[in-house]
Amino acid sequence: MKIILHNTIYRLKQFIDYNSISIREFLKRAGISHGLLRQVRTIGSDKLKNILSTYTELNPEWFLTGHGEMLKNETAETTSDKASVSSTEMNRDCKIKILKKRLDDKITQDLENQLTLKGRIIETKDEFIKRT
Question: What is the DSSP letter of 57?
């Protein structure tokens, strides 16, 4: 059995961010190769089983459909306040993280472009000075 991924991978990344672990660590614990999150089409039931058996607090319904809470109800009662975060709040928090990352990436790219442009200007000035 294979499951369509796009939103499932997005939710998986939310769960990983929520737990403040790296993707590599998440996959290693579940016994899954790192390439899983690069796929965009399907996930095998064996990998799904590995994820759900390793991360027992993950609510399978939320993981597969987006309905309900990210964490199972019994986990919410026995863990920290972190577990009571609703999926709506989780989506908002993840979107904020994603937007901050995009902004950081954009700023970095803009600065690199400015440096490249300034380098070209300096090269042009040097060439002009050599000619005169």
Answer: T
Cα 68 from Cα 115, distance rounded (Å): 48
Q: How far apart are CA 112 and CA 92, in angstroms?
A: 30
Per domain, the residue ranges of the chain are 1-85, 87-132
Kindly state the average pLDDT of the residues 28-52: 76
Give the tokens for residue 70: 């990210």
- Alpha carbon distance 74, 63 (integer Å): 16
Which three-class secondary structure state does DSSP give residue 59? coil
Angle of helix 23-30 versus helix 45-54 axis, rounded to 10 = 100
Check if CATH label 1.10.260 holds for domain 1-85: yes
At 49, list the tokens: 């089983």
58-84, pLDDT tens digit by residue?
999 888 888 888 888 744 444 444 444
Strand partners, 42: 4
The pTM score is 0.50
pLDDT, averaged across the chain: 78
- According to DSSP, residue 32 is labeled -
